[in-house]
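Repro case for the chain-ordering regression, as requested:
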Amino acid sequence: MCAVRGLTKTYPAVRGRRGVPATPEVRATDDVRLDIRRGEIFGLLGPNGAGKSTLVRQLTGLMRPDSGTVEILGHDIVRHPERAARILAYLGQESTALDELTVSLAAETTGRLRGLEAREARAERDAVLDELGLAPLAGRAIKKLSGGQRRLACFAAALVGERPLLVLDEPTTGMDPVARRAVWAAVDRRRAERGTTVLLVTHNVIEAETVLDRVAVLDRGRVIACDTPVGLKEQVAGEVRVDLVWREAAPLHVPEVAALHDRAVEAGRRWTLRLAPEEARAVVATVTGGAAFAALDDFTLATPSLEDVYLALGGAARQGLVKA
Amino acid sequence: MSVVPAEVLPGSALAVEETDRDAAELGPRARLWPALVAVYRAQLSRARVARIPLLFVATFQSVGIMILMRGVVDGGAEAQAVVAGSAVLVVAFVALNLLAQYFGQLRASGGLDHYATLPVPPAAVVLGAAGAYASFTVPGTVVTAVFGCVLFGLPMAHLWVLVAVIPLAGAALAGLGAAFGLLAPRPELATVLGQLGMSAALLLGVLPADRMPEGVRFLRDLLPSTYGVEAFARTFGPHPDWAFVLGDLAVCGAVGVVSLGVATWAYRRAAVR
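-- result from build under test --
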């Protein structure tokens, strides 16, 4: 339903001024090719600055690409950006346009601006607020809510006035588990009943693994992989991740530990190792017995996550994906 | 060489793997009036949350200026100019200054994306917001005008002319404010432009024109709020010349149409970057 071909956008270099360092030319999206199928939850995963939001802005008609095509449900969005608003609903990261409205008025107004009649807009508003458990907060100003509630209220506004494609930019940021469940239940219901397609931007690895049908991994503006989460993880199936947390410092006087030092990624007291399964077993045996054990605070042994996939595919950022 | 463009040759269409080749039906477009009313209503509701303190500020400022001027001016044409100028100043403060700040912040923070991804005519967003900000000025302007009449002993018989002055001066100044906010490259600059516009309305509108040097008087003629002030001031006379009042109001209305048009164009430009 959504085909993206050769999408490229370059931000021009900015000359430095007093107090502002110069920034070189940045290629925010680089020859991006994607195919999103009807009814799937398609994810864009990558660390901050990978080009996720720039890509989404081009898909929603908010930004004109330098070159390339975007076709959604048969409509050329690059040539007719104004049509995007009639095909998709967009939940951006900013809520400033709705901040000072009440939850109820934000949802109703958004519905009206999506072309609903007053009566329809009110009916849909009530249905969506009930569905998301926001009815008790309906009369409160969005600005006065907590971060997660505010996000949920904006999500509610995005749902009023049905659209076949939902574009959600980090929709669950700051939400508690109850609110997250409400979001994914609402998405699933629309998918089952109306075949709604969802394009989700996230840097949350756990969420990506649990809710996405397929995921495109972005790194420095390029799509470095695109597959189901399971399919991607099979690419690094031969590896196991071992996390070791030392009490104070690593016992480098133990020869086996010293030998691992070069292969570990250190973050404070934590060492992360990516090893073949039999190697991992040997490491666990070493550190849980003998001299090293006294220095060990905690250890975990895990199968690879999408973060490991990102790193294995040559993702440049060593940090930036969230595991929560 | 073939003169048939490549696009019309069979099999030259862009290769798309998807099966749904036929374009899907688009969702409805929001029509101008319902969308304008929805934006207006939403903006008006913001007053409860954020604007009431500022409306007090606008009114107190104008009342304070009149009290100060009471010591300098003792009636006649000058008193009429001071009262009219102070009343229109409330409109300038809210419609020009605050609206410039609002759109400046909305643009800088990415809040315009919300409207830009809804199928709403740009004019509905700009006119809805401008209309709401012009409406915010009604209580302050009326209070200022009544207080001024009492303070300077002016007749209140023709205060009804505010029914025309507020929307027309409001349209001209709100359009200007919205254009400032949407065109300024940074929100701080939008704030500065709004403040400067309001200061101009204050100095050139409240101070009696007869005492100004030629150059300043020319500037005064360029400012749209001047015509609202003039129209209002004329109605305090014993026999107001209604043709001149209408003429002044017509200038306000014309400037309003132009500035709101510019603001709508600026919105389009700001929405797609």
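Ordering looks correct now. Chain B touches chain A at residues 14, 16-18, 20-24, 26-31, 34-35, 38-39, 41-42, 45-46, 49-50, 105-106, 109-120, 124, 271-273 (CB under 8 Å).
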